[in-house]
User: What shape does this take?
Amino acid sequence: MTKITEFMRTDVHSVHENTSFETLMCQDICNIADHVYVLDRDNHPVGLITTLELLKALVPPYLNSHLAQMLPEDQRLNEKCYEHARHLTARDVMSTDLPLISIHDSFLRASTMVLDTAANALPVVDEHGRLLGEMTRCDLVRYLGSNFCPLPDLRGTEGEQDGQARVH
Assistant: This one.
């Protein structure tokens, strides 16, 4: 039986729950990943921060697209919003709806959890609940495809080694 650990990603990004909003913004989440896990002091995942959570912290909750269309672009409003948000922490802005899978779970369980929750990635934890990695939708599709696809594994081909993506 193939183990989750053979297909999971271990290069996940995380922050401590007391990480400041300013630090989160300076990390440039868009360039490192589309999300970061929020960990407690024992490395247990307690939340997730995506660019959506950052936007929610930066845009006033009373502002919607219709009202924004009527307002002039004003840097002062942006500065005021950032000034309010900069005092927040990762715990303040994180989403706590975080489905977890264990290194002992099956691919079927992981796949159905993604379908049930629409999560892009599932944090993988050890038997003590500590974050070890993540299983993304792409990892699950790659695993399932590797069992049924007659094509050879194309990872590590010459084009990818020289930094150019291959389009087939």
In short: Strands lie at 14-16, 35-39, 45-50, 101-102, 121-125, 131-136. The chain has one domain: 4-149. Residues 4-149 form a domain with the CBS-domain fold (CATH 3.10.580.10).
